[in-house]
Amino acid sequence: MGAASGLLPGGRRLAPGLHFLSTPIGAARDITLRALDILTVADVIAAEDTRSLRHLMEIHGVALGGRPLIAYHDHNGEAQRPRLLRALEAGQSVAYASEAGTPLVADPGYQLARAAIAAGHPVFAAPGPSAVLAALTVSGLPSDRFLFAGFPPKTGSARRKWLSEFAAVPATLIFYESPKRVGEMLGDLAQSLGGERQAVVCRELTKRFEEVRRGTISELAAEFADQTVKGEIVVLVDRPQPRVVQAADVTAALRERLGRMRVKDAAAEVAEALGLPRREVYQAALRLENEAE
């Protein structure tokens, strides 16, 4: 099957449109058969890093032939999008590959997708490797609800303010971070979210020196504080745990307020402060009020 045939297995032609391909995050054999089929027959190939994609194609015996291989990244997206859109307008199939992982996840393909959709061109995805999902899988943290937050700001004050916005999110949080800043980032996480939360640091997923460390945020912050770290980093943080409120705490809070507030107002304030149902707190306030009479 030659590149010029434009055929997929079974004699099917690759549909005109923009095809997003997921590429391995470490192990070259993690690429899917479908992604290789698309790379084999696409009319035009674009990549965040043309050198890494060319190497991947060589590993798997996919010939480029006379087809264009276009670099498309953060620094040249504005200039290259018109060229790719012209290819789509001409009815060609355009394959775009991230440097590693799934396109549009911390990747410059987003604007290309929006431009193609706005112009009325079909957009397809050949799913595959993703550092987000790989890290979530090995973390042991809840996976029923998660939030990918991307890269934190580089400076400490901005990072702490940014991280604090996620403090109450009821989901597993997933961040990418530079190995040079992971120690500082964990320290800021402890300050912004609380050091007692469970967290996981994944390094070099699917690669030879893959490492997964688990513990509280404070424990991990102490481990990474003075370490020189290399490789790709994913940091995951468990959701906030429900606060356990003792009956004595409710009673003390109500008594402090009942001396200066109406029963209804005291109950409402305590319920909000402790995160408890208003009706239950109101009934407790009434009992205290009756005992005092």
Describe the 3D structure:
The protein folds into three domains: 3-129, Cobalt-precorrin-4 Transmethylase, domain 1; 132-237, Methyltransferase, Cobalt-precorrin-4 Transmethylase, Domain 2 (2-Layer Sandwich), CATH 3.30.950.10; 247-292. It is an alpha/beta fold and 293 residues long. The protein is elongated and about 90 Å long. Helix 7 runs antiparallel to helix 8 (217-224) and helix 9 (247-258) packs across helix 11. Residues 1-5 have low confidence and may be disordered. Helices cover 41% and strands 18% of the residues.
CATH hierarchy class name of the largest domain = Alpha Beta
Order of helices and strands: EEEHEHEHEHEHEHEHEEHEHHH
The side-by-side strand order for the widest beta sheet comes to: 5-4-6-3-7
Estimated radius of gyration: 26 Å
Helical content band: 40-55%
Rounded to the nearest angstrom, the distance between the terminal CA atoms is: 91 Å
The CATH H-level superfamily of the largest domain is Tetrapyrrole methylase, N-terminal domain
Shape: elongated
Second-tier CATH architecture of the largest domain: 3-Layer(aba) Sandwich
Largest sheet: 5 strands, parallel
Global structural class: alpha/beta
The count of DSSP E runs of length 2 or more, i.e. the number of strands, is 12
Pfam family, one: TP_methylase
Family: Belongs to the methyltransferase superfamily. RsmI family.
Main location: cytoplasm
Subcellular location: Cytoplasm
